[in-house]
Structures are given as C-alpha cells and as structure tokens.
Amino acid sequence: MRVAELWRYPVKSLQGERLTATEVGPEGLAGDRQWALFDVPTGFGLTARRVPDLLFLTGRLRPDGRAEVGLPDGTVTSDDAVLSDWLGRPVELRAAADAPGERRYESPAEVGEAGEYDWDAFTGARGAFHDSSRTRVSLVSTGTLGTWDRRRFRANVVLEGAGEDALVGRRVRLGGAELDVVKQVGRCVMVTRPQPGGIGRDTGVLKTIHRERDGCLAVGALVARGGPVAVGDELTA
Known about the structure:
Elements: E1 2-8, E2 17-19, E3 21-25, E4 28-29, E5 35-39, E6 58-61, E7 67-70, E8 76-77, H1 80-87, E9 91-95, E10 104-108, E11 119-123, E12 137-141, H2 142-145, E13 157-160, E14 171-174, E15 177-186, H3 203-213, E16 216-225, E17 227-230, E18 235-236
Parallel strand pairs: 12-13
Antiparallel strand pairs: 1-2, 1-13, 3-4, 3-17, 5-9, 6-7, 7-8, 10-11, 12-16, 14-15, 14-18, 15-16
C-alpha cells in the first residue's frame, strides 16, 4: 500500500486541509486536531455528531500556527462572536494547549434515525483533540472504502491498496515515521452526515458498517517514531 492522500484537520469536526507532505510527531500529523470549538454553557467540546453544521466549516492553519475557520460565504475568521453567530450558540475556539483538563464530548448511544438518539457523554484524549487516546494517526485504504466517499471517514492517511485491518498489532513504517497500529476505528453517526461537495445524508453507510464490518472502518495508530511522510510513500510492515 502507498499513500494516496494526506489530510489534517486543524479544528476538530470541521473540514480539513489536503497535504502533499507533512511531518508526523507524537500527536499525529503536524497541526492535526490542535483546535476545537467548545460550547460555552455546557463546556462540551463540539463535534459533528451533535452539531452537523460543523462539517460546512473549514479549519485552516495560519503561518503563525494558529487556526482560523472558513465559513460557507467565504468569510475567514477566528472571532468567537462571529462563530457563535453562525452556529447559533455561544462557542469558543480553543487550542489544545489551552484546554489541559478533561475534554467531554457527546455521542449517540445507538444507531438510529436523527432525533431517535439517546446521547451519552464521553471523555476524549488529552493533547490533540482526538476522541481516543489510542489514535494519533488514522489510516484507511481505497480497497476498504470501495465506492464510499473517503471524506465521510476523515482519515489522516488514505492508502492505495487494501489490507489495513491486518496491520492491527504491528509496527509499520510510513515514509520516515514508524507507527504502532493498535486498533480498528469504531464508527458513529458522523459518517452519515451531509458535507460540502455533494455528500448527502446517508444513514445506510453506518448501518452497512455495523452489519458487514462489526461497526469499524479504518485503523488507528500511535506514533512510535516521528518523521516526514509524503504522498507516494510506501507503507511497509
């Protein structure tokens, strides 16, 4: 398998940036999920599981390393008041370094149609705003994706080929980085959400993943050794 695409998501649950090359460090791809929007009244971190409109915003990294958000009308901002007005709720854009304590998010308890979910709270990882402390880099292959649009699954690395599930429990080399592939990635309602570019709402995606793949798609890895990764690099185990 070789790297077909690289993606970083500077702001959790927002659209990301496609890269041709990047550095991988202990927290994952440089700049990945280093910022998140928080609901001020509840203190919860916001995700597109709970607020689907987040997927119509785009997170970007400025040259100074800070994040900014692109709105559908072309406005680019990091102003909490502007973001709050667009989302219709008081929010704050926070850096991971400024949120050292427990990060709480909401996730639906079971698969169902929108409005039928019971919502549970869970604690996310420290450091970068990953859902799980056991995932710093996510990888999925074109063979696993089939006809599904890869943007639904927000993997950092899209691999040309097939067979990433068999890598769980193994150390792999990707460019100049070494990754410990530790788990399959469980999927939630977020993969059903509509997105820009003609991706419509599709509850069948998640139902199929549960029926045919035991609820998982893609694999999650921790970084054993950092280094550069570029499109075209081969994954070796």
